[in-house]
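Example S7 (structure tokens).
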């Protein structure tokens, strides 16, 4: 029975409403490990998938989870029932714009003013 309590069933809800999982993870696993699992299981037919662990944010019980925390530390006593499946929401950051793209976007936005005195 102790082995069952050392595992947590987690599914990851993507922004389009689809899920990855559920899959069983040890409560000692880090959030970074969960993110690596998401990268490995990311559906190939989805556009704009994460490239690295840094591109992924996990949200559970309204909190953004930090990479260095364990699953046990992130559990919610109200939401995570024994034997139940915990749902974590996945937010993917878009890749950063390249420097050349930033320059071209910033150039037209230069504000200039001119005064005319009549």
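Recovered sequence:
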């Amino acid at each position: 029975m102790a082995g069952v309590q050392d595992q947590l069933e987690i599914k990851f809800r993507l922004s389009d409403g689809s899920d990855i999982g559920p899959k069983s993870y040890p409560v000692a696993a880090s959030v970074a490990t969960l993110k690596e699992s998401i990268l490995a299981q990311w559906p190939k037919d989805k556009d704009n998938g994460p490239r690295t662990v840094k591109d992924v944010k996990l949200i559970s019980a309204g909190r953004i989870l930090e990479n260095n925390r364990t699953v046990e530390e992130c559990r919610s006593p109200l939401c995570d029932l024994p034997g139940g499946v915990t749902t974590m929401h996945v937010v993917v950051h878009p890749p950063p714009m390249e420097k050349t793209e930033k320059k071209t976007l910033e150039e037209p936005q230069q504000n200039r003013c001119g005064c005319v005195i009549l």
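Notes on this example. The mean pLDDT is 78.
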